[in-house]
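User:
I would dearly like some help making sense of a protein record. Take your time, and here it is.
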Amino acid sequence: MKTLVKHKFLLALILGSGFSFAQKPAQPADFLSSEFHQGRREKLRLALPPNSVAVFFANAVRNRANDVDYVYHQDPDFYYLTGYREPNAVLLVFKEAQQKTDGTTYNEIIFVQPRNAFYEMWTGRRLGTAGVKEVLGFREVFKNIEFKDYPLDFSKFDVVLFTDFKDDVRDDARNEGDLYDLIAQFKQKVNYPAKGGAEIAPEPAAANLDTQSLFTIMGNLRGIKTPEEIQLLKKAINISAVGQVEVMKAMRPGMSETEIQGIHEFVFKKYGAEYEGYPSIVGAGNNGCILHYIENNKPKISSKEMVLMDLGAEYHGYTADVTRTIPVNGKFSPEQKAIYELVLKAQNAAIEASVAGNTWKATGKIARDIINQGLYELGIITKVKQRHMYYPHGLGHHIGLDVHDNGPYEVFAPGMVFTVEPGIYIPAGSPCDEKWWGIAVRIEDDILIDENGQPVLLSGLAPRTVEDIEKTMAEPSVLNQFILPDLDEEK
């Protein structure tokens, strides 16, 4: 109670002082337009079954510790369809136009968090209902607290499509209309089945609930990128590639994995990338054999090791995914070179085969066959068809609003953007000659299928061949003069 009174007092001071959050902050000019998001909703509507409604919820706010939350990141589907980057919201997209009591019609509704001067002072400006209409182009916009009593009978639809819940959303008791409340209210409206532990059997679930189809429908939409999306992806990819180049030039024995990560991420921020698309992977030596190694805390890297660097900038929501593996001393040893060029051979063949109409499975087999043959010729495996763990993952994945983006994985089609990332990982103790131990190589590039059905390398700014990597690593770095004081030195 005391806290609430205090907040009301502060709010009165804010409003009484004439303090306003109405002024719009400067924004990058290359965000996706409201017309883009509206067009995506129209595409979704065409893909929905007759007499249906699709329901999307904003992402949850995730707590980091105590009263500090993680930086908020919108649900990719929600952002794709709305452009709204705030929490505590729900979107409804109808297949057919719905009629109001006054005779007017609508085919979509969004419920968003309202303006609040006090909270905006702490956590940033909100669009509110007026802002969502003005900036994002919605006509039917309501406060999230109005969802509970909004008169919509979900039982009249043949299908209500939504993604099933994970039951991992916190209830913010101070915030009426938060995501927890929105989900609970929706469950009640659609007669969502109770799960486990109920002493009294719940009423039968509504027969029109579909928690499966929306993932496929959205994947078919998001898997084919529009020109606007491709432009943002190219920017994210080029930023990531420049980060690889700058690290190649700055690399020297004795650097830490953390320092290498920091150079990459500084380049991201320098170009205006808001986030990393995923936790950065910087694995030196045997650490590179851990596919998703994110500790990045090895303090000093040996001159005899290689460093596997898998990092991607997220620019305005769209994520690159670029990996390079380089020798710390600037020169590949014979064993490092042999493994590297084998991976590159497999990658080049797979990229060349990634044409419209070919299958993901076929390109994956091309890369795997080349790697298996090469490992056999190097004596690392004893039979070409020997089962092993030196190449334990698939060839690639879609990229976009997620680093592992939703999309179809049958055949390649124009407009797809995806990775091709074969790798070989030989951890210490492997059943082969010790000279190969600790060598880990992944080469990952981002590929676009163009309008002619041909693969286009988007991440070519980052050197890929042994010759080009060694040449780049011999170039001077602007960071050579960036010397900080030794904090461990005794005075």
